[in-house]
Amino acid sequence: MRRSRRFTQTDRECLERAVEHYLRDCYQKRTAARVTEFASFLGITQPYLSRIVPEIIGTPLRYFLRRRQLDYAAQLLRTTPARVEDIALASAFGTRSTLQRRFRAAFGMTPKHYREITKCDMTDEPRACIIDLQLDRTLDLGRVPRP
Fold this sequence. Notes:
- This protein is mainly alpha-helical.
- It is built from seven helices and two strands.
- Strand 1 and strand 2 (138-140) form a beta hairpin.
- The N and C termini lie far apart (66 Å).
- Residues 122-147 have low confidence and may be disordered.
């Protein structure tokens, strides 16, 4: 029988830093993020990593990685004029179709539509673009009425 180890907040912070370093490496190399490659990056086996990560952060590693990638892709969509194809590579999704499929599942819309509704510059009237950061659903996308 395998003994269960108690993980601490320090373990969680260490794992989060490792994920950030790994994803930054993927972003720079413009390669897709993969659990097996992350395990290799850490120098441990993928089965062991997949077993301990949910104990540390409460969610499977692939979902944790994907959420970080989606957050980064959303940031790029809001803050850069880069093409969706380039953002797919820059956020470690590999292809535009993978980004679109994952983005639609998380945000309920395409990356292009997300960019349109969240693009706000000084010349735009204010928008009520409240995007659920839990990546579950879009809450309210209407314009704020003028007084």
